[in-house]
Amino acid sequence: MDLMEPVESLKGVGPKTAEILRKFGIKTVKDFLYNLPRDYENYQAPTSINEMRPGKVVIKGQISDLTTRRAKRRNLSITEGIISDSTGAVKVVWFNQGYRVRQFAPEKEYFFTGNYELKNGRYSLISPSAAEVSQVDLRAGLAPVYVAHGGLRSNDFRRLVAGVRDRFSEIPDLLPSVRSGVRREALYYVHFPNSLKSAQGARDYLAYEELFELILAAKLNRRENDKLQAFKIPFKLEKIKRFLNRLPFELTGAQKRAAWEIFQDMEKTEPMNRLLQGDVGSGKTMVAAMSAYEVASNGYQIALLAPTAVLATQHYDSLVKMLTSLGVRVALLTGATKKKTDLKTQIKQGKIDLVIGTHALLTDDTEFKQLGLVIIDEQHRFGVEQRQKLMLKSPTGLAPHLLAMTATPIPRSLQLTVFGDLDVSVLNEMPKGRQPIKTRILREIEMREQLYPRIIDTIEAGNQVYWICKAIDDDPRTETTSVKSRYAKLQKLFPKARVEFLHGRMKPAEKDTIMEKFTQGEVQILVSTTVVEVGVDVPNATLMIIENAESYGLAQLHQLRGRVGRGKVASSCYLLTSGEMQPSRRLIELEKSCDGFHLAEVDLKLRGPGEIYGALQHGALDLRIATFSDTHLIHRAQRDVEKFLQNPENMIKYQELMAGITKYQQITTLN
Ligand code: ADP
Ligand code: MG
Question: Which structural domain range is residue 422 located in?
Fold first, then answer.
């Protein structure tokens, strides 16, 4: 059995079936075999009909008197029959499954699995699944249940797998192991288990296989990275002292540790590949500034990439303040920058040390003289290709060091697997004097009483308010209040306050003006879309209101909330919900905790990693079988990958494995 053959090569798969399978991503024999059962039906001990009790039952019998009719209510068909065994008979009912009338042969025996319950005054077996007894391996009495695809039902998958049952012995090994044939046994027992235990054992092996592939891909990426050459950036103690002496505050212990790790990495000739993760407000930008200063002091250039123009501008403002007087030449390059060509020429000639920008930085005509360090803020916002574009911008043939920053922490299990034991610096300590943000879920109807007085207090105390809305304009189809109508309402409600709005469709210059006014404290209430989500830093803002909070993800809400709580005054955040429904688990978790690391773990459980870290490679991160919570299996796979890599011949010997992991390599790279 050649695993790479198209599914058509399987017995019983014609062009039509193949078409349906392909639509669901099952293209090859391998895909087909790895389409694992979602569950098992247990036929080991069917109940006699005279002993059935209400609830889920499995019975074994013949079926007769099948009829189907339309119910009075339209669009409903009812199929009924009688199932009998040697102890009695029971009525069976299916709804909208007309094909059942033709499915059964009266002389054959079937297993039926369904609910035995009271319906219209009579106990019946309701909508059971059915399997022909002669098709079920009676020794085991377990039948796999497959997810239906298109017109293909679980039974069809059973039939197709059964068709190749005697060919599993031809399946080659995928990974080295102490004993040959482990994989083929696992695949066999996952489809044809002889006990639930053997099915679980088989799944465990296949989960291990999956983790092995993922970790191997990540480690190979890392090797590629280590082969590259980078500029060596010798640590300049005097310079850094000068930088620190001018700061109005002391660095946190975590900031010092992170900076030190970065300086050490950059002294090496292979490029740094480090993720700086720290909750919103933990002071990542400061660490970035020190790293940039260190590189500029050695005569190399730095590029800082930010996901939005608002954020790039803000970084520019704060970095200019910190670095210009130290002799660093800083420039901003966004879509709105005037005289781009002149600026680009200066960058190319090395007359600019630090360029801060958005996607505009990635265009082909942005070239550097010698790019020593790339800093990417909110790295998960950029796709692999975009990040790579920036890494290739040094004409010297030397790769820049990479510092990626994120406020969406990556749980340890993912760091080890997907990101290949990535180098991580963690800012797990907030600057002194920060107070936790009080968070409350509030229904919109309670707003007038509970929220408006808080707004007035905040403004009177000289602090500022963010009000986040979902949409820019009103949409008659939804009841969501838009930025524009909320803005109008707030202006009327708080005539003494200066209210402004901000959203992504405004011209960059307009946005900058508003942001500048808000930063200067001239605006008291800023009504905005999520453009302020990432990174915006106005310590004087102490009240955050998020309307339609239920429509955002956990990480995003945490990010938004992080716009307040940046100064010395205690801040609060209100999560407004519109409906009558109970608040979701997300909102409740957020109300309980301000700890981004904890929330990231919760989020991983609630949504799976693809949603969180793979926005741009959606789904690719979602494991088929393994779970990221299985640390035991992760560690085992990791150890075995190490062993595998110690023998270079393995990469030639295990062709199928090497070919299969290229898809993972794309997603497990940071740079
Ligand atoms: P992040 O990017 O991690 O969300 P920032 O770098 O924007 O956080 O820092 C948040 C705020 O805290 C900024 O106003 C910054 O000046 C300030 N800050 C950074 N480090 C310290 C520190 N060690 N002590 C006091 N304030 C700090
Ligand atoms: Mg930031």
Answer: 231-427
CATH of residue 383 = 3.40.50.300
350 lines ligand 1 (CB under 6 A): no
Among protein residues, the one whose CA lies closest to atom 5 of ligand 1: 283
Ligand 1: centre distance to CA 431 (Å):
7
Pair (282, 397) in one structural domain: yes
pTM score: 0.69
Whether residue 450 sits in one domain with residue 413: no
pLDDT of residue 561: 93
Q: In the chain, what percentage of residues exceed pLDDT 90? A: 53
Does the beta carbon of 567 lie inside 6 Å of ligand 1? no
Are 460 and 504 members of one domain?
yes
Cα–ligand 1 centroid distance for 244 (angstroms):
14
Q: Quick one: pLDDT at residue 127?
A: 92
d(CA 539, CA 297): 30
As given in the structure block, the two tokens for residue 140 are 């085991």
How close is the Cα of 534 to the center of ligand 2, in Å? 7
Q: How far apart are CA 28 and CA 71, in angstroms?
A: 43
Nearest bound ligand to the CA of residue 259: 1
Q: Is the pLDDT of residue 516 over 90?
A: no
Judge if the beta carbon of residue 256 lies within 6 A of ligand 1: no
Q: What's the CA angle centered on 126, arms 96 and 114, to 5 degrees?
A: 115
Spell out which residues have Cβ within 5 A of ligand 2, the ion: 535
How many other C-beta atoms can be found within 10 angstroms of the C-beta atom of residue 454?
Answer: 15
* Mean pLDDT value across residues 329-345: 92
419 and 274 housed in the same domain: yes
Note whether 383 and 407 are same-domain residues: yes
> Does 537 map to a domain?
yes
Q: What is the pLDDT of residues 658-671, one digit of tens each?
A: 988 887 776 655 54
9 falls within a domain: no
Question: Is 408 in the same domain as 292?
Answer: yes
The residues facing 401 across adjacent strands are: 373
Does residue 288 form part of some domain? yes
CA-wise closest residue to 539 among 560, 563, 506, 566: 566
Q: Looking at ligand 1, which atom is closest to the CA of residue 433?
A: 25
Q: Based on the domain organization, do 552 and 448 belong to the same domain?
A: yes
Rounded to the nearest integer, the mean pLDDT of the chain is 88
Cα of 429 from ligand 2 centre, angstroms: 15
Work out how many domains the chain is built from and give that number: 3
> From ligand 1's centre to the CA of 400, what distance in Å?
26
- Last residue of one domain, picked from the residues 93, 108, 135: 135
Q: From edge to edge, which strands make up the β-sheet containing 499-502?
A: 438-443, 572-577, 541-546, 464-468, 525-528, 499-502
> Is 409's C-beta closer than 6 angstroms to any atom of ligand 1?
no
Same domain, 418 and 459: no
Q: Pick from 593, 627, 645: which residue ends a domain?
A: 593
Cβ atoms of 664 and 657 closer than 8 Å: no
Task: Give the residue, by CA position, lying nearest to ligand 1 atom 24.
Answer: 431
Which of 285, 320, 519, 560 to mutate to test ligand 1, by most ligand atoms within 8 A of the CB atom?
285
- Rounded to an integer, the average pLDDT of 315-330 is 94
d(CA 611, CA 596): 17
- Say if 634 falls within a structural domain: no
286, 542, 569: residue to mutate for ligand 1 pocket, most atoms within 8 A of CB: 286
